[in-house]
Design goal:
Blueprint: E1 42-43, E2 46-50, H1 56-64, H2 67-72, H3 92-95, E3 99-102, E4 111-113, E5 116-119, H4 129-136, H5 143-162, H6 166-174, H7 184-190, E6 211-212, H8 213-223, H9 236-241, H10 244-267, H11 276-330
Helix pairs in contact: 1-5, 10-11
């Protein structure tokens, strides 16, 4: 296997790239194959960023490190299954009527909502064996470079679960997430070692798979005091549109309740003997309307509590069962 660690140091950054040189998908930094037979002096596909630039490290941190999600990692079990395998393949999103949206923000990679999921394309430089060997893993690995390596390894491993079938591979190429000139066989060779990457070798965010955006909003409100994790609405109309349904339901329920109460009060004033039967119908209809609204509201509240509690208990059990494995790996 072409993936090693410091001997005796569990969780240290990899000393070798997570793929073999003959399986790399980007050869721009290969001195034998580069144009004019020389090594490129810039980051692949980034001609404005020289490899010897002092800003290269900062760019890599911004490009591959989900810093905000890493800070939320201790609490992510509240909004996602605590498993890095919880990543659906690309072809399944069409079944769920979700669009795959390209994003360059690593903090939005595999973040989803009802009709879309955001995916970060694989940076070309992470597909180069020479970049891993001569830049990421060359010399002493300090704290910042370790963070970059963990983010890069987590991103690569996530793609192993995103692309499981030839159909996933075609979808990834269609939305420009991987190189268009690669073949399915080349991708399989390139990613063959990704499943061997352990949780203690990746960024904490990648201990989890897909993340629901609405739950991330609540998470940052509880633990960071922020209003939203990421603001995606296009304007005030989109911001307030999410409240239309609940408000209409509340107003409709209150209207039925008030109408039923008004009918109940009005029928008490009917004294005519000819209207006794109708008086009884109106009175009991108003009472049953009140009871029906109360039962529906109670059912919805109880259903919400049961569903939320069930998910919370399941997540807590999964998180608790994962801790012994993590302790075993560390020791």
């Amino acid at each position: 296997m072409n993936y090693t660690q410091d001997e005796g140091k569990r969780g240290a950054p990899a000393l070798a790239p997570p793929f073999k040189k003959e399986h790399q998908l980007n050869k721009d930094l290969d001195p034998l194959l580069a144009p004019q037979g020389r090594l490129h002096s810039w980051l692949p596909t980034h001609p404005r960023l020289p490899l010897n630039s002092t800003g290269l490290q900062d760019y890599l941190i911004e490009d591959v490190c989900p810093t905000k999600l890493n800070s939320l990692a201790p609490h992510l079990w509240l909004c996602s299954t605590p498993s890095h395998t919880n990543i659906p393949p690309f072809h399944s999103h069409a079944v769920h009527k979700r669009d795959i949206i390209l994003t360059e923000d690593p903090g939005l990679h595999l973040v989803w909502e009802r009709s879309r999921i955001l995916v970060k394309p694989l940076p070309s430089y992470l597909l180069s064996h020479a970049f891993w060997t001569h830049h990421l893993l060359h010399g002493e690995i300090d704290g910042d470079r370790k963070v970059v390596i963990q983010g890069a390894l987590g991103l690569l491993r996530s793609y192993h679960f995103c692309i499981r079938h030839p159909s996933d591979f075609r979808v990834a190429q269609t939305v420009h997430l991987i190189p268009p000139d690669a073949t399915w066989e080349q991708w399989c060779d390139f990613s063959t070692s990704f499943p061997a990457i352990e949780n203690d070798q990746v960024a904490p965010r990648y201990h989890y798979g897909k993340l629901q955006l609405s739950r991330l909003h609540w998470l940052v409100r509880m633990y960071r005091g922020e209003l939203n994790y990421y603001y995606m609405d296009g304007g005030y109309g989109d911001s307030f549109a999410i409240y239309y349904g609940p408000l209409l339901f509340v107003f409709g329920t209150l209207s039925v309740l008030l109408s039923a109460m008004q009918v109940g009060m009005a029928v008490e004033q009917v004294q005519s003997r000819d209207w006794t039967a109708f008086w009884g119908v109106c009175r009991w209809f108003s009472v049953w309307s009140l009871m029906f609204c109360a039962l529906v509201s109670l059912y919805l509240m109880v259903s919400f509590v049961i569903k939320s509690s069930d998910e919370l208990v399941w997540a807590a059990k999964a998180q608790y069962s994962a801790r012994p494995r993590l302790k075993t790996e560390i020791t």
